[in-house]
Every structure is written in C-alpha cells, then in structure tokens.
C-alpha cells in the first residue's frame, strides 16, 4: 500500500466514525423509546399507526414470539415478491414490457431480497419491471435491513436488561427501524446520488445517439435466422456500424440509496455499482461505501450506550476495524500487482490488475469497495471479483466465510460478532479461573447450545452445498472456468448465499434451475438458523441477573480482548475453510506465481 | 492439620490398575459419555476395518499405512481412557487414606443409657445415630448429639467463637451438643443424633470413582462447544472427499484422498486433547479439594468456588485466634495496678476459659503474682444471665486475703452489681472501657464489693499472615467481609488491623442472611463458612457454603462443602482450587484448538500434493513423505494426551494476578504455545519415523 491508498482508507474510516458516533447514540435513543418521549407528536402518530394495525405497542414479547413475528413477516415478504415477479406482465409501470419471471428465478430472487442477501441470478434491466423493482425489491431492501436491526437490538437488550422475560416488541422495532432510521437516511442519500447523476425516472429503454459510432462485425443471418455459411463452410460476417444505443432507465437513485445503506447490494442494473447510472463519480462511490458501513459501525456505539459502557462497543468496533484494515491491505496489495500472465504477453501492468475494473475507480477504489462490500454483507460490486488476483479474490471470499462479522450486515454484523464474543469469552473466562460471563451475564450451556447452532449453520450450508455442486453435472456445467477457479466460483456462490452477502464470482452461470434451487434454501437457512438462536440467546440473557464487575472479572474492553476476539474469529474461519480454500484460491495463487 | 494426604503425581502403584481400566473403558457404552472421543472410537473401528480390507488386495491405501493409522487411533482412545482412570485411581486412593486417617478420637459407648453404666471404647468414626456415650471433663464430645443426663460446662469456642464456657444440661434449650467441642467440668451422657461425616465421604468416594460423577454445568457447556467444533471439522473433512474428487477430475492427475487419510485428518483436528482429559481434570479438581481435607458434595460447588467475589468470614477463628487474651490492666483512680492484677487473678483462679487463664498468666508475668490455693472460697461461675464471674472469700481464706467479693465481667453488668450495693461506677473507668473498645479489645471490669478496681483489656489476636492473604484476595477481585458480634468500634479496629474490605458488626444470623441476599442482588457470588445451626439459613443462601466438620448437622446439610479440619481460612484455598480447575479446562481447550494449525500444515499438502504439486509449498515442515506426515500428526495427537496427564491432574498453576494479566499469560503459553509447539514435535516424529524406515 502506498501513501495515496493509506490516505484513501484513512480518510474513509475517519468520516465513517465521525458519522457513526452520533448515529449510534440516536439508535440507542430510538430503540429505547427516548425519541418518542421527546417528540410527543411523533409518538401520537406512531400510536395511531400501531392501533390501526392492531399492535399492542406497550407489550414486550418473549423471544419466541419475537422470532415468530419476524419469521411470519419475512415469509409474507417472500410470497409478495414472488407474486410481483410472476404477475408483473399484467401490472402497471412496465414500460419495457418485461415478461413474467421464470418460477425458479422468481423463487430464488424472492428469498434473496427478503434475507438481505440480494444474490441476483437475473439482470435487472432485462427481467424486472419498475413496479417489481420498487414494490418488491426496494421494499424488501428496507424490511430485510429492519429485520437485522431489530434482531441486533433485541440481543443487545438481552445483555442490557436484567431479570425480565421480554426482549422488546418486534412490530415496534421494525417500524422504528424503517421509519426512524432507514427512510430518512436513504432519502438524503438518494437526493445526493441524483445530484451526482444517478437516474431517477419511470422511462422505458431510451435510444441515444453515440458520440462516436462503433463498428463491429456480426454473422450474417439468412431468412430463418440461421448464420449464413460460404462455400468453405465458414460463417459469413458483415460489418455493422452502430450509431445509437439503448439505455435502460428507471427509479434507480431511490433504490441505490437503500441498497447500500441496508447492506443489501442488489443492483438495479446487472453491472451493479460498476454501472455509470448507479455509481457515476468518485464522490458517489465514496458515499456508497460510507453508506455500507454506516449503520453496522453505528450499532457498535449503540451497544456501548445500551449496556452502559461505551468501551464495550469500542472494543467490538476495534476488532472489526483491525480485521478490516489487514484485509484491505492484502486486497489493495494483491490488486496493485500486475498479472504475470498478461505481462508475459507484453502488457503494461503498472496500473495494477485492471481486468474487470472500471477505469474511473482504478485498482485501489475497486479493491477497497470489494473488501467493504464483503466485510459487510452488502454484496454490491463496482468491479468484477471473478477477475481479481487469486489472493485479491480470496480476501472477499474469506471475509464472507468469517460469517459477515467485520462490520457485517445491518444488525447481522453486530449479532454475529457478539456470538463470536460469547465464544471467545467462554474460553478466556475459563482461562482466568471463572465460569464465563460477558457484559455481566453468565454464559451457560443453553447459550453455548445456541452459539453452536449459529456457528454450525453456515459451514454446513457452504461446504455441503459446494460438495453437492462439484459432484453434480448440473453444478459443474455452469462453471465458466473449470479447474481450481471453477471450484472457487462455486465455493464463493455458496459462501455468499449462506452468509447473505449476495456478491458473486460472476464466472458462474447461476440462473439455472439447479443453482436457483440450491442457493435459495441456503440463503433462507443461512439467515434464519442464525436469527432464531440469536433471539433465543437474547431471551435467556434478558432473564438473567446482571453480575457486578470486579477486579476478577475478565475485562472485555481492552486491547487484550480485541486480540482475543480477532483470534477467535480468524481461527474459526481459518480452521473451517482452510482445506476448501487450499483447493481454490490458494492453488490458483501458487499456480500463478510459483 | 496433620491428616493431609499427599500422593505422588504418577504413583507406580496406580499405573497398572489404570492401564487395566483404560482397556475396560474401550466399551462403546463408556465411550458414549464423551462424544468427541466416541468419534475417535468410530474412526479407529473404521480404519481397523479398512486395514483388514487391505489384506484382500484392494485396500483404501497401502496396508502398512492403514494399519499404522488404525493402531495409533486406538492408542489415542486408550490414552484418554488412561488419563481418566489415573485421576479416578488417585481420588480413590485419597478417599481410602482419608477414611483411615480421619478422627482417631475415642468415644466411650455406654451399654445402657445411664451414667455409671458399663462402657467400652470405640472410634468416634464408628458412632452411629442412636448410640449413647459418656463424656467426662477434659474430653472431646465425639459427635453431634443431645444431652440426656448430667450438667457440664462446655467450651464451644471452636464453633461459636464465644470464649466463655456454656452450660449444657439435659432437657430444655441447652441440651444439644456439637461434635468437636470440649467438656470442661463434670460429665454428660449424650445420645448421638448424627452419623459423622461418612455420608459426605461416601458421596465423595463415589464421585471421585466416577461412577456417580455427574457433569458440572460448565463441563456440559464446554462439551457442547467441543461437540460443535467436532461437527465443524466433520463437515470440513467429509466435504473434502467430493472436493478432492472434483479436483482430481479437473486437474487430470493424482488420486482422491483416501478414507484413512480423511479419518486421520478428522481425528487430528477435533479437540481430542481436551476431550480426552476433561473428565480427568474434573476428578482431579475434586481430589485436590480432598487433599485439602475438604469434601465437596458436588462438582458444581467446586466450580462455583472459582467465581466467588465476596467472602464472608467470621471474625473469631478465621481472622483472629479463637480466644482473646488479657493484655493490660487499667486501674481505677486510687487503685494500684498491682492491686487490680491481684484481684483479677483471684477472680480468675477457677476460671478455666482461655481468657481466664490468660488473666492469671498476665498477672504472674507482670507482678510475679502466683496462683494461690484457696480452700473454702466460693467461686461464682459465669452465666449468661449475670454475665459475670468471680469469687467470694469469706471463711478461712479471708484471714489471709481479707473478706472479698470480687467480680469481673462486662461493664454494664458490673455497673449494675456495684450500684445495687450502693457503690458508684467512676467516670475514668467508663472512659477506659470505651478506649479499650475503640482499640478493638474487650473490656472486663473488675470490682470488689462496691468498689470498682479497674479494667482488664482483652485483645483479639489477629492471625499471622492473614493480612497478606486478604491482599491476595483483593488482587483476585474478591472482597472480604468480616462478620462479628462485636460492637462497631471493636469491629472497625479489627477490620483495619486485619485488612478486610468491609465488616458487619453486631451481626445476628438474620443480618448475615440479609447481607448475603444484598450482595447476590448486586450480582455477586458469595462464599461463607459456618458451623452453628443458626448459620444454616445463611449457608443455604450462599453460593459456596463451607460447613465446619465440627459444626452442627444442620449446618453441614445446608452447606455444599464440609471442611474436615474445621479451619475457616480454608475458604481461600477452596476458591483457588475452583479457579485452578476452570483454568486447566480453558487452557487445555485453547491449546487443543491451537494445535490444529500445525496439523493442517502437515496433512493438507500431504493429501493433495498428488493433485496439485504446487501445494508442496505449504509443507513448511518439509516432512519426509505424505504418509509419514499424516502418521506423524496422528502420533503427535495421541502422545500429547499422555504428555498432558500430569498437567491435568495437577492443574494449571493459579496466581492471584488479576484477570487481565492471567489471561495474557495463559493466552501466550497455551494459545501461542499451542500454535508453535506441534511444528517441531511433528517434525521430530517424522524424522524418527523416516530414520526407522517405517514410512
């Protein structure tokens, strides 16, 4: 990393923390009802809304009622998004006349957006009507982020409360998350993006004249649409000059804002944030990567405020930041290298590995974006991860496999990291001669059972799914590059789905019945076999008394704890995935450089 | 105390039976108790099957390799069994030794339940509920019981801390006596109401033998984590077979990973080290308690001891020596110090309490006053009503000493006594009384008839070294609270001298209970010692409750540990033992998981180098051959269990250093050490194997 990239990363983190600090405090106030206390008029409107929906806002839910409410809410979300895709041909706001989405793809996409994954087997501009994008996908971008936020807050309440049965009201939390945080912030971001040139309209595809006509050759077709062949059996080509281009339009900015802020990542267009209509300028790029980490970073401060010790939140944030910095350094270094296969052909590699990257972002901003989008479970891309160097591609893949806990998804990052903290504290607590406790709560066998479910769920889905896919012919045939890289593509796909990231090593043609059906359940179970046990932990912790902190208590706020937490995350991630990574990116790297 | 039992760590006499036990424990039913080792057991069975299969000529891998792996996997199971058997053997040996050594006092068992009946001597440990014994002056009461005949003064200071003897008599409120207390005068016929400690001992023996040892809560939680890790590695290893098949097909070279190698990798990765030693650690913890002569009624209690953050300690016997001693004479105006000493000595001549004797001794030391024989003097014993004792010299002795009515006792009682006779209680004496109390002493006022002679200062003697122990506890994050019946002034003075963090003065049993509840409501774990029946509610409420073996049966039942030595300072050792057990568990788990890094570096290149030759670069140990690499890792994995048995039995050393420093130390030793150590070890085993030409 040179000075310029150090400066770029440093500046990014500085702005991020300056924004996250006040937001974290606001989130604590919001979810503990203090905002409502301060603005009685707002509270009255909210009260009318709850009464209208038949919600008893004052009632705390037990963890399982909370979980049931979230499951039902999300299951209905899946049905709605599925129905919108299947019926879009008869519905309004379909200027391009998109046909109904094929059932397998619709099923996959519905789960994908509800689970905050935003894995996209389809291309937005070729499959979805404006109505589906707005009412189906964008709405779930809000609701899936709100779900994650609610779960994280419920878990923090488990630590903060003492000897009570409830962990909050799911409906109130979802409402507060959507209306109190996500809507206002994404409105601001959307307006800014429009100012940067992101499109926002209801137009259909628009023909525009090219500034510079492009000549290209294509096979000549006969009357039946078959390529014409000459006497020698060669395909006859003709040269065509293109003077116009068809540009897809739509309500992009409004969807783009929540796509980043909610760590969703599902692009309006197939090219995602590499597309100039989604991410036109370096400034829009900066705002997008800030939006990805904003809420996950703020939640660390929220944790500190809610448990009454800001240092606890800072420790979690510190652990996340340190892992992030190391990963960014590796990725920027890897992408700054020239690809030896290309330099061997006499190409200039001084700009780094630029294959699959936008020239306006370059290798540093592309690598930074890739690390941020995979550290958080966003999955938006401004460059093609498939074309990264082997180690540059290993970094995003491994960040996903760590469980999306380095900042992570909205809410999901915090609750995932807290599960790791429980695990770390369990062993560390024993090592100082006490039965383990974290944030004043004893960690006992029930919590360890739930922690085990959480840490087992995603490896099972990822390794199991990849194993089936590399054995099945339907799985292998989708690989663009056979061999170790093909293996990496499949491993990346399942890692991305099960951890609800949504980005892809795009070389894999995933819009097939096989992958749609394999990845759909991977996303659903990757999301909810984590959320349900996390809520169970929250419920059990809330019921416990809070222990006093003494000199004999394991300090969970110092550098030592940060090291311990990082060690736990990295060791679990390394031990689980090292064999698989050895057969993918590590072999590729050794192939390329040795 | 003398009856501590110490055993060498690896007693040769215990090794042979432990080896036998290790074989018996190979039965699948015994293995099911430990899920992680059960996986190894299945792996061993599977590789044995594959080894037999090689004789048919179409094996999974070369026959010698498969056989070697199978044998070493069985060794892994056997070594874990051996560790457990060793710990159990040690515990059993200690229990037997304890049973033999404990309580060699003798009891006189009466053939008929009346005084004067024939009696025979029997060991007090053989006493059963319902036996009737006679105890004469100077003898120790052999067990808890009820007086059915006789009246006697009994020194219960060891239990109650009250130095004045109490009267025990048949019938009424004063009929119950406690084992370990001493009859000072006369005799008592006692019906024993409790079987001494045996019930606890039997439970203890059953627990150390492993037959009834239930897993402790933390052990269960840790086992869950270990099972989860095992499952993760199971996923990683099982999925490696399809990954390998795909890689071989797409690279077009090499052979898919063999099932034998997969099983070897799995066994190396799953936390066998800690799983194999876990129950040994638990058993060893119980037996370390036993070495300290403490019987825990559950492993849970030992575990909770490590968590304690408030210690309630009775002043008397724990912080101060059981008895107060006279330290100064403070005469009233117009009275010489010698005259006061003389009167005090006369009043104490018949006083057999340690305080009384110390007054006689002090008078002798200071003024060379000798104990005198009095012939027809009338000694007035201490009673709870008068709260005074003394002597009336009227007859023959009066010619020598003058006619005297000397009393010594609590200031208030003496004031009443003096004023009843028309005397006055001088203000300077009252001042001395307050001064003494402020210094943490107990004032005894001496009066002769209606004249107040002065004050004897009795001082509590703080035990040597106790201040340092409390400082250590403070470093461990444990708060010490002194409980005493003394008034606040006295309590504060002693608390300051002993260096406790807090004190509860003028404590009644219900105050103790309330204090424990308050601490628990604050989220603290409380440990206490107790012995009296009125301690029982507090003992039941405390998280760790150590009853003195000399205490009442009610106290023992309410507590979750019994200290056979009846030494209240033991609480500190108990806390340390609890911590040590938890630390050993945590450290070995960390070590076990950290070892996996090196094992990956040994095995992964070995199994995939045929398919992807580039992966040889990961073989940073430069092992001699793929099969030797795998075998070396498996052998290391088995041997490390044996190597760590002494550590598991002895426990990781606990030092009161504070949580952060302790964690840093253990992380460095067992975390970093666990990552680094296997590299040279596996390399050495590999060198040995290749030099032997085995692989």
TrEMBL record, chain A:
Alphabetical list of InterPro entries matching this protein: KdpA
Record's signal peptide: none
What NCBIfam families does this protein's entry cite? kdpA
Q: Give the lineage.
A: Bacteria, Pseudomonadati, Pseudomonadota, Betaproteobacteria, Rhodocyclales
Question: Assembly state and interactors?
Answer: The system is composed of three essential subunits: KdpA, KdpB and KdpC.
Pfam families the record matches: KdpA
Q: Which residues form a coiled coil?
A: none
**Family, similarity comment:** Belongs to the KdpA family.
Has the keyword Transmembrane helix been applied to this entry?
Answer: yes
Query: How is this protein situated with respect to the membrane?
Result: Multi-pass membrane protein
Name of the featured protein: Potassium-transporting ATPase potassium-binding subunit
- Which UniProt keywords are given for this protein, alphabetically ordered? Cell membrane, Ion transport, Membrane, Potassium, Potassium transport, Transmembrane, Transmembrane helix, Transport
Superkingdom of the source?
Bacteria
Provide the primary localization. membrane
Q: Where are the transmembrane segments?
A: 6-28, 66-84, 137-156, 177-199, 286-307, 314-334, 405-430, 451-472, 522-539, 560-587
| HAMAP family, per the entry | KdpA
UniProt keyword DNA damage present: no
From TrEMBL, chain B:
Keywords assigned by UniProt?
Answer: ATP-binding, Cell membrane, Ion transport, Magnesium, Membrane, Metal-binding, Nucleotide-binding, Phosphoprotein, Potassium, Potassium transport, Translocase, Transmembrane, Transmembrane helix, Transport
Predominant cellular place of this UniProt entry's protein: membrane
- The residues listed in the UniProt record as binding ATP, with positions renumbered to this chain, are 351, 355, 382-389, 408
Where along the chain is Mg(2+) bound? Answer: 531, 535
Top enzyme class of this protein? translocase
Where are the bilayer-spanning segments? Answer: 35-52, 64-83, 220-245, 257-281, 588-609, 629-647, 667-689
Q: Which residues form the active site?
A: 314
Q: Which reaction does it catalyse?
A: K(+)(out) + ATP + H2O = K(+)(in) + ADP + phosphate + H(+)
Against InterPro entries, the record matches this protein to: ATPase_P-typ_cyto_dom_N, ATPase_P-typ_P_site, ATPase_P-typ_TM_dom_sf, ATPase_P-typ_transduc_dom_A_sf, ATPase_P-type_domA, HAD-like_sf, HAD_sf, P-type_ATPase_bsu_IA
Has keyword RNA-binding? no
Q: Which domain of life is it from?
A: Bacteria
Spell out the SUPFAM superfamilies in the cross-references.
Answer: Calcium ATPase, transduction domain A (SSF81653), Calcium ATPase, transmembrane domain M (SSF81665), HAD-like (SSF56784), Metal cation-transporting ATPase, ATP-binding domain N (SSF81660)
UniProt topology in membrane: Multi-pass membrane protein
Location in or out of the cell: Cell membrane; Membrane
Annotated ranges, domain P-type ATPase A: 116-209
**Known EC number:** 7.2.2.6
Q: Which family does it belong to?
A: Belongs to the cation transport ATPase (P-type) (TC 3.A.3) family. Type IA subfamily.
Protein role: Part of the high-affinity ATP-driven potassium transport (or Kdp) system, which catalyzes the hydrolysis of ATP coupled with the electrogenic transport of potassium into the cytoplasm. This subunit is responsible for energy coupling to the transport system and for the release of the potassium ions to the cytoplasm.
* Quaternary data: The system is composed of three essential subunits: KdpA, KdpB and KdpC.
> How is this protein named in the record?
Potassium-transporting ATPase ATP-binding subunit
**Species annotation:** Uliginosibacterium aquaticum
Q: What is the lineage of its organism?
A: Bacteria, Pseudomonadati, Pseudomonadota, Betaproteobacteria, Rhodocyclales
The gene name on file is kdpB
